[in-house]
Amino acid sequence: MDWTDVELISAYRSGNMDAFQIFYGRHKNSLYTFLHNKCREEARDIFQETFLKFIDATAKKNLTNPKAYLFQIAMNLVRNTSRKAKIISLNDEFDIPDIENEEIESVSEEEFKESLSNLAKDKPLFYDVLHLHIFGKMTFEEIGKLKGISKDTIASRYRYALKYLKDFLQSSQLHVKEG
Question: Which residue range(s) make up the domain with 40?
Fold first, then answer.
């Protein structure tokens, strides 16, 4: 039987430890990836603390979207650990997705980090959506439930985030070529 997250947590609350193991196995990789990309050094500690807080919450609350709640705990812990945005680390080269059939040349890790840092500072709502979708592997619908807004608004914020990154990287490439 393929149980939903809600069914797994309900079974866990009723004493079925295997149900929690299934839930944990289903979400551990995406949660760890999300945390590792947000805060590399503290990822393991925050990962463990997230699940501890989640277990405590399951005893007290009837969760309607356990995955979203799990990621919300993680996001809150990351924010509490450091109010300053930490940027992901990538390989030496990273290709930005083609938006509206316009090519962007390959950019360095430093340029991409700078673009993400600016996005986090200038447009934190867009940054959160981009990060949750790409690294948290959450759907727009899941992010919408987490944030309490429509999935269409989330999709729009995601597109704006990509456009912001594209524009920033194109302008930085122009400065390099002109200089």
Answer: 5-81
Q: Which long-range contacts link 13-18 to residues 24+ away (Cβ below 8 Å)? A: 13/58, 13/59
> CA–CA distance from 70 to each of 24, 61, 65, 84, 122 (Å)?
10, 13, 9, 22, 26
Cβ neighbours for 23, distance < 8 A, ≥ 6 positions apart: 5, 8, 9, 12, 66
Task: Report the domain count for the chain.
Answer: 2
Q: Does any domain span residue 89?
A: no
Residue 90 lies in a domain: no
Q: Which helix (H) or strand (E) holds 50?
A: helix 43-60
Q: What digits encode the pLDDT tens for the residues 43-70?
A: 898 999 999 999 999 988 888 999 999 9
Residue partners of 138: CB distance under 8 A and separation at least 6 = 30, 67, 68, 71, 132, 146
Say which CATH number the domain at 33 has: 1.10.1740.10
| Mean pLDDT of the chain, nearest integer | 80
The answer as to whether 86 is a domain residue is no
Q: Are 152 and 105 in contact (CB under 8 A)?
A: no
Q: How far apart are the C-alpha atoms of 139 and 1, rounded to whole Å?
A: 23
In a domain, 121, yes or no: yes
The pair of structure tokens assigned to 31 is 């949660």
Nearest CA to 112 out of 102, 103, 124, 120 is that of 120
